Amino acid sequence: MFTGLPKYKATRPVEFWSTAVPAHWQAVPGIAVIAENKARNTGLAESQVLSLSYGRVIVKPVEKQRGLVPDSYEGYQILEPGDIVIRPTDLQNDQRSIRVGRVRDRGIITSAYIGLRSKHPWTTDYAYHYLAAIDSTKRIYGMGSGLRQQLGWADVKRMPCLVPPVDEQAAIVKYLAHANARIDKAIAAKRRLIALLGERQRAVVRECLGASRWQPWPLGRLGRLGNGSTPSRSEPAYWNGDVPWLNSSVVNRSVVDSADQFVTSRALAECHLPMVPAGSVLIGITGQGKTRGMATVLRIGATINQHLAFLTPDPRRASAEYLAFALAAGYDELRRLSDGSGGTKGALTLADLKSYRVPLPPLEEQAIVLRELSARARETEQTVVRVNREIELLQEFRTRLVSDVVTGQVDVRELAASLPEPSAGMEAVDLSGDMDELDIDEVAEMSEV
Q1: pTM of the prediction?
Q2: Strand, coil or helix: what is 76?
């Protein structure tokens, strides 16, 4: 499905993509194939709030709207299934977010986002894949204007858009549905493996600490606890400084010794961000994903966002490395605690953490326990690092594949004709069936071509 795809014979150059595209494809400005959504929520006709999250336009649960609900949703835009949303703000400071999403439910979203609807000769599905490719290949970051590099309809309507014949668009969409389902299945299998390895490692820690003779201590007596925040992305003076700023994804790492986002000293002062010293423990405290309840050791001085808490231990009582293992042993209990009636659903509060108890041996015995647990965990950690890299390769491969297909670098018409019609929702992660996993060596090799 991925190797040996033929090339188009007749091509012509298109400057926007820095490559040649099929000669029979049109290249037109965006206004010829997409229209700006102008439907406003007049009279509060629609109440279902949508949110762009990790490239998906989802229905925002009512409990998550607390504190963010504007006085009126009158000025929001109404979106229909099939519409496309672009988050156009802060192109200069945030070049990691997925900015394009496809709408699956009718609802409203802030008018700060650009709502789009495809029009003939673009089909809805091809329009989404094309715009998503502009986002994933980072071309979107060269399109903004103004001091803060904000994208607007004026930029989108001038954007060069490729237009294959309608039947060819259908072939491209069909091929990508099958390709994405296969890649999704491979990624899901690897994530299940990581989850199983994590549970095995936690079981080892529980076995070591569970029947201990050591008195349990509340975390609040072992050091200083706190959490962070996110400076406004619309304020350039807060970003691209020299202070590492971490989000909750770092708890997936055994230690944190680097950062890829940075804030300024002004952000520290004005946004009340904590400066967390090296030798602290970071704990994921919010969200329905696996990071809530996970802990890691911080090896650099950094500040953190609101989805993380920190514990800076008193060195006379405990080491960060020991506490990270002890929290790993209690992961399931922390998950239950944060889902219980005693706190906000889907969140650990600082009060929860202050009262949470861990067995605490003397420092010299902590060192002995650490040596044993570290030796037993090393092989698992190496495997997790390898599997995470394989997931990254698959994601990079998907980005390149989609871009190559929607820009005509490969011809999938013949292959698409041999594939069955995709089932509804095939582009969502599909865990059913016995589809073979992708060969990671093949993907790595193709990613280097």
Answers
A1: 0.76
A2: coil
